[in-house]
Amino acid sequence: MGRTQNTGRDSQAVTVYYHNNPRLRSQGAAFHWWDAESTSLHDHDYYEFFIITSGQTNHTINGRQEILTEKTLYMIRPSDCHQFTPIPGQRCIHINLPVTEEKLACLCQAIGTSLSRLMQCPQRRVTLQDEEFSLFKRSARELNCLWESGGQEDAAAMIICEMLIHAVVILSKPRGNAAPGAPEWLDRILRRIHSPEYAACRVADVYAWAGYSAPVVIRCFRQYTGETVVSYLTKVKMDSARRLLTSTDLTVLDIAGRLGYSSLSHFNKLFRESAGMPPREYRLLYRA
């Protein structure tokens, strides 16, 4: 797996080097399924995203122990030292997406953020929503089909990059939870905003769900999310638009309508401000 080195965290940790992975070395990003019961204590000279697709496992990271379950998305940094150990009676399988720092920085820049901003996100572990989880599993199946049929490395590389972009977006966006101390009604509204069932909701809907006056709702949003109602709702919708552009055949007009925008020009304007490019250009660049 690598050679033993003193990482400053544990003298027995093993470092895994990206140049030992041919695809990671040549393309900057790779993919594989992991179903072994355990790993050695190790770190990497690259980043790693993994998604638990079934089962549970013990996970030790930087000396802290935790149990990971299905639908967990996790980002591992080069500075992290971690290890998987089995839970009796559980067989854990996960998707693994290693990526070099240079490649990850390029992907972050392409979606209007930066690697340093990603590193500042308070969450490096999230529980995926059903729609998000299905997207990763579908992409993994597509990769398996491509490789089983032989060739098509360019298409495979694009799917891997798409999966990484989705992981970055998911980790970077609000997850529908307000800051500690927020009223229960605000938590309920944020969860609803992030639900695909309410993708077309509008600011007026938020006020109606709250049952309070607009000034009260606006004040609570600012206090507990750091955003206005409009900016919070727009960020969630633009994140959804990115996913729909790269994972479906819906037209831009259909996507705008699904997200509650009756004006295509207004939707295009908001998307350009968010992603730095028009929706059609984004789809051409990032759709596998």
Give the helices and strands, then pairings.
Elements (H helix, E strand, L loop, with lengths): L2 E2 L9 E3 L5 H6 L4 E3 L7 E3 L2 E8 L2 E5 L2 E5 L3 E5 L5 E4 L7 E7 L1 H10 L4 H5 L5 E3 L2 H20 L3 H20 L11 H10 L9 H8 L3 H12 L3 H19 L4 H7 L5 H12 L3 H8 L2
Helix pairs in contact: 4-5, 9-11, 9-12
Question: Explain this structure to me?
Answer:
- The chain has 288 residues and is an alpha+beta fold.
- It has 2 domains: 3-172, Sandwich (Jelly Rolls); 184-286, Homeodomain-like (Arc Repressor Mutant, subunit A, Orthogonal Bundle), CATH 1.10.10.60.
- It has 12 helices and 11 strands.
- It has helices spanning 22-27, 101-110, 115-119, 130-149, 153-172, 184-193, 203-210, 214-225, 229-247, 252-258, 264-275, 279-286, and strands at residues 3-4, 14-16, 32-34, 42-44, 47-54, 57-61, 64-68, 72-76, 82-85, 93-99, 125-127.
- The strands form 3 sheets. The protein has a 5-stranded antiparallel sheet. It has a 3-stranded mixed sheet with strand order 1-2-4, with no helix packed on it. It has a 3-stranded antiparallel sheet with strand order 7-6-9, with no helix packed on it.
- Helix 4 runs antiparallel to helix 5 (153-172), helix 9 (229-247) crosses helix 11 (264-275) and helix 9 (229-247) packs across helix 12.
- The longest helix has 20 residues, at 130-149.
- It is globular.
- The relative contact order is 0.10.
- Residues 1-9 have low confidence and may be disordered.
